[in-house]
Each structure stands twice: as structure tokens, then as C-alpha cells.
Amino acid sequence: MKKQKILVARAIFPQVLTKLEEHFDVESNQPDTPWDKRKLAQMLADKAGAFTTGGERIDAEALAAAPQLKICANMAVGYNNFDVDAMTARGVLATNAPDVLTETTADFGFALLMATARRVAESEHFLRAGKWDRWSFDMFAGSDVHGSTLGILGMGRIGQGIAKRGAHGFGMNVIYHNRSRLSPELEAACKARYVSKEELLRTADHLVLVLPYSPSSHHTIGAAELAQMKPTANLINIARGGIVDDAALAVALAEKRIAAAGLDVFEGEPRVNPALLTVPNVVLTPHIASATVPTRMAMANLAADNLIGFLVHGKALTPLNPEVLAK
Ligand code: GLV
To answer: How deeply is 202 buried, as exposed, middle or buried, from its count of CB atoms within 10 A (0-12, 13-18, 19+)?
Structure first.
């Protein structure tokens, strides 16, 4: 039987590519050439499936150029690059890569929190620049993590992982806000207390953002929200660019209206608001929260297994619009 054609839109692990090639006629972007919208549409024109990584926008326009497309499998838990409604309307299955990255991403959220609170990046830059010539009583004095109040906005699987690390590992007082409240059992496991968004902003010493991006979460943290935070508070964003108003954050950091920030995601990334690059009290990382070799491998395998599962066996592991499967 003739193999179905699929597109792998970005470079991936060669082993995963080999696995896909056992089932499909694969066109891949292994050189990792940047493709614009037009090029992506052109590459999708004759494909039944696409392996995407979170950066490729699949909307009504892309779908119109891909009449044979049946599935897009994202190698990311976030899927704001998909217009899921348009995909469902066209009968195209969308899948993401949840669960396999939860603990790794929660580890990184905590790493960024620690680095921000204890001024790790700022002090390292100082040392590398040869500026360390003597001890002083308040040199890079930061804020405590143990025993402080950890606020979490967005209490999905990753938020819960961060809560557990904070409560059980560092004796933090954990508060959270989410669209829906967790069950009493989950709240007990996370030792987390549900509060209003206002209370979260007002009382957190460390506020970690882990909510999904959608037009309704755009600029969830802007100038008004930053103004409600304690001047000693730290803000950590491992969610998505666009959830924080980066320009407003740069001003708040420069004016020390909050103590510091740790950011793994940015509005319009890989571009970073130049004002953020000029303030010292921010730790900046290039969207690497899920980046360990085993986890990235697991994410790639899950996306590949969704493609194989659906196109070969009619079943997907992590569908976002399962109504398509029922059709
Ligand atoms: C990473 O940001 C992801 O959504 O997996």
C-alpha cells in the first residue's frame, strides 16, 4: 500500500524521524530552515499529517491550502498555534503533548524562581565581568524562598507540580488562583489554598504564571496587576509570551516596583523586548522549560505516536478535539 505523506515542520531527533519513515512518506525540515506562512502552506498542500512544534500557525488560511490534511500533532503541551475551532470545522484532528513534560517543566519553574529570588544570573554576570573584589554585607542579597508565600496563577498539572515542590520541599505557604478550583483531594496533595486573583497578586512573595495563552489571557499581568504586587515580590513566567505585558514589566523592574522577574517566554519571541535586556533584575531564558533530553524525546515520540495512531490505526493518544475522531 502506498504510504501517506506527512510533513515534519522542524528538525527533530533522527530516531523519531526514522520511526515516522517506517509508516509514512515523510518530508522533513531537518536543516531547520525558517519557513514563512506561504512556505508552510506550500509544504502542507499534499500532506495527510503534520508534525508541528508549537511555532507553526495552523489556522483557516493554512487549512485552506491543505485539502488532504487530517491531523496536526504538536510537540508541545501548549497549542495556541492551532485554531482548534477551524481545525474541528474542517475535520482535522489536533493533538498536543501533555503529561510527559509536567515534572521537567515544574523543575524549571522552580529553577527560575530560585535563580530570580537569589539573584543567581545577576551575580554571575558581575563575577564574570571581574567586578568582584571584596565581600560586602548586602552584596546580591535577595529574597528567601523557604517559608515564603508561593502564588501560582494557573493550576493545571505543571502548576500543581510547582506547588508540591514549594510546599513539600521548601515549606512554602502555597496559594493559587485558577479558572476552576481544584478538588479538596488535589488541594490537600499540593497543600495549596484557593484565593482570588487580587489576593494572589497582593500577597505572593513569588508569583509563578502557568496558565495557557488564549486571547482572553492576553496581558493577564499588565501595569495594573504589577502595581498590586509587593515591591519585594518576584514574578516568574513559564506560561506563554503575551500573558505578561513585557513593556509594562520592564518599567516595573526598572522602577523597582517589584523586586525581580524570571522569564522563559516572551511576547513575539524569539524577539525579546529590548527594555528587558537593559534591566539587571531579570533572569532571561530562551523558552527551555521542557528542555531535557529525555523529556524532549518523550514529547517528540508522543507527537509521532499520535500521527501513527491516528493515520494508521484511527486512534490518537492525546486529542484536543476528539469530536473529529467520532466522525
Ligand atoms: C512549551 O512551551 C510547550 O507548550 O510544550
So the answer is: middle
CA 268 – CA 274 distance, rounded (Å)? 12
Distance CA 298, CA 198 (A): 37
Domains of the chain: 5-100+293-324 (3.40.50.720), 102-284 (3.40.50.720)
Q: Which of 21, 27, 199, 269 is catalytic?
A: 269
Mutate to test the pocket of ligand 1, among 105, 107, 237, 295 (most ligand atoms within 8 A of CB): 105
- Please give the distance of CA 133 from its chain centroid, rounded to a whole number: 39
Mean pLDDT for back-to-back runs of 10 residues, the chain (327 residues): 95 98 98 96 98 96 97 97 98 98 98 98 97 97 98 98 98 97 98 98 98 96 98 98 98 98 97 98 98 98 98 97 91
Q: Is 263 helix (H, G, I), strand (E, B) or coil?
A: strand
pLDDT score, position 258 = 98
- Helix extents (H) in the chain: 14-23, 37-44, 60-64, 84-90, 102-117, 120-128, 157-164, 170, 184-190, 197-203, 223-228, 246-254, 274-278, 293-313, 323-326
